[in-house]
Amino acid sequence: MADPSDLMRRVTRVLRARDPLEMLGALTADGGLPAARTRLYVGRATALEAFPPTAPGDDALAAAAREAVRTGKPRLVDGPEGRTLVVPLTVDDEVCGALGAALEPEGDGAGAGGAVPDGLALLAESCALGLWHQTRTGPLAAALEAAAAGVFAWDFSADNVFWDERTCAVYGVDPKRFDGRGDTFFALLHPEDVPVLQAAIAQVTEAAITPLGAGATGDPGRYRLQYRVIHPDDSVHHVTECGRVLLDDQGRPARALGVVYEAGADLPASGRGSGAEADRSRNSLLFTLTRALSKAVTVQDVTRVMTDLARPALGAENLLLGIMEGGHLEIVGESRIAPALEHLRVPAQDVMAFAATQEEPLFIEDLARHGEHGVPGLALVGELPSRSWVVLSLGSADHATGACLISFAGPRLFDAAERTFFTAVAVILTQTLERARLFDTQHQRATDLQQAMLPRRLPALPSLSAQSRYLPGTRGMRIGGDWYDVLPLDDGTAALVIGDVQGHDAHASAVMGQLRVALRACAESGLAPGALLGKVNRVLCDLDTDRFATCAYLVLSPADGVLRGARAGHPHPLRVRAESVSELELAGGPPLGVDPSARYPTTASLLDPLDTLLLFTDGLVERRDADIDVSVRAMMDGILDWSRGAGDIDLTALTDFLTLRDDPGRIDDVALLAVRRTS
Fold first, then answer.
1. 614 located within any domain
2. CA-to-CA distance for 134 and 140, rounded, in angstroms?
3. Domain-located, residue 305
4. Do β-strands 588-589 and 562-568 pair in parallel, antiparallel, or remain unpaired?
5. Burial (CB count <10 Å: 0-12, 13-18, 19+), residue 157
6. Are 96 and 129 within one domain?
7. From the centroid of its chain, how far is CA 161?
8. Where does residue 302 rank: exposed (0-12), middle (13-18), buried (19+ CB within 10 A)?
9. What is the pLDDT of residues 514-557, one digit of tens each?
10. In terms of Cα–Cα distance, which of 130, 95, 168, 115 is closest to 25?
11. Is 162 part of a structural domain of the chain?
12. In CATH, what number is assigned to the domain containing residue 187?
């Protein structure tokens, strides 16, 4: 399933399947998923129907399917023939079934921690959409045929498009000659409708990536577009396109799936795409791009807006963004470049470096005629493909910020309106990029300060192994007061500390430093955990910092595993074993700094040699759209899936699993401490 073209063709067949058996056939036919080890489950957890019908030995798969449908999370099943990943089929947060597929031997790492290979994830999305339509609109294939509608799939990252025969007929393209490129679609558009559709695509993409609670309503990924295309006989056809933009696991637009059909009398034959409307559409696209860039905080945010929103909306083949550092241009963001165009990377950077010193954008309407432009670097490449480049100069007359190269397939004439549009984009992008660079610099300094206040390394203690991690926040300045500590005590025990000061600013970091000092001083006195937290609480109240802090403080004896601990408004630690994950319930009191008379009971427990103790701050689990208890439960399930069958828990692997995953939902900083006895 590594061939993108084959994958797109299979996706289309899945979407057009009239029933689950036909869908299963589309998944497994012609070198697809292994038929003997592929199962499609349709329905809800209490009544799942298996396709093909459940055979002897499928009980474990059926149980995994029910669990996947119940939890909405993938399940990994080990069997005599290998490993099978069971993926829930979800549309609009509604689970309609599950797909079980064998993992390739070389992909044994796939599925760890709930990871789903990209190809299988796309097939699962297609199955979910197909089943959704089957249950709500009747036989999908019959409906498409009756409407003379075709289906399409567009992979944004690879700019790979698949059309079925009916879609090709709608666009007037010979299916045998369609090259599967996004720019081919834009070339078919009526010239007056190009800016109209560019603006619409930008709005749809922006809506799809807008987080819930930040202006999104309903299902922002769904859309309906109307435009005109020109067939080879110069006839003009009105087209309606209905689809949905799907996001990847990082919340970035990954692909679009949908249907197209001729609109007929749905649209008037005139009055669309006039010069005035084209101008309004360009202004709308510029406004959408400006709005998206205004929300970009970091340089990485800026590159995502340009590669994920601007490039598809413009119908561009590639986009590169670079900034000037120490007199040299450094590429900070780019869309995927086809292998056949890799030899253009160096001249592209040379052209960008040259453009960065200019005051106006550089328009190269045909690379094959590069000699007319006098741009250094291009002449050294030899024969160049037919491409057109817009290279935006980012900066001012006395300061070069960087450059942005937008590449289009084939030669292209840029009229006065387009040149004005790209010049405006350069001005807006310059301002955004300079603001983002300033933020990144300030954020790095603040993060360095935060890191300097944390332990440089954990102490080496007899019979005790420990690993720690710290992650800065991902939104705004997001420096904060999260911290951890391991303190060796005179009696051979070790104090384990995790805490979180309210706020995300330098003040929070300063209060965190004061608390670390106070905790260390009190720990040396040998106080019980509850009594120690009571004393530190009074210290924080007396400091009158106007901040509170949550904290968990535990004392562990590595020799016999005796564990005593207390909490001040902090999440319970977790006890992790190979076959179970549970909360270590500690009696607690209010956060430190709230009530000077607060009391904190001490709880005693025992840590077995095979147990791993996991202390964390709420940034690891807290999400805007989820209850924290639900998020903790989800993390516990994820750890259990990751550790099942692993035997001894490796602390480095565990902390990496929890902190190295891309998680677009995380916004807060994170402190994590994992401890295990080695005696």
1. yes
2. 6
3. yes
4. parallel
5. middle
6. yes
7. 22
8. buried
9. 898 889 889 888 899 999 999 999 999 998 888 899 999 999 99
10. 130
11. no
12. 2.10.70.100
Q: Are 523 and 532 in contact (CB under 8 A)?
A: yes
Q: 658: which residues sit within 8 A by CB, 6+ positions away?
A: 469, 616, 620, 635, 639, 672
106 three-state secondary structure: helix
- Report the alpha-carbon distance of residue 541 to residue 548 in Å, rounded: 9
Band of pLDDT at residue 107, cut at 50, 70 and 90: very low
**Would 330 be classed as within a structural domain?**
yes
Provide the residue range defining the domain that includes 51. 4-146
Q: Are residues 505 and 400 in the same domain?
A: no
Q: Measuring CA to CA, which residue among 644, 639, 576 is closest to residue 60?
A: 644
Last residue of a domain, one of 228, 254, 287: 287
DSSP 635-672: HHHHHHHHHTT--SPPHHHHHHHHHSS--TT--S-EEE
Alpha-carbon span 216 to 295, nearest angstrom: 14
Number of domains composing the chain: 4
CATH code where residue 653 lies: 3.60.40.10
- Residue 32 one-letter amino acid: G
Mean pLDDT, range 9-15, rounded to an integer: 81
pLDDT for 665? 56
- What does pTM read for this prediction? 0.61
d(CA 130, CA 124): 10
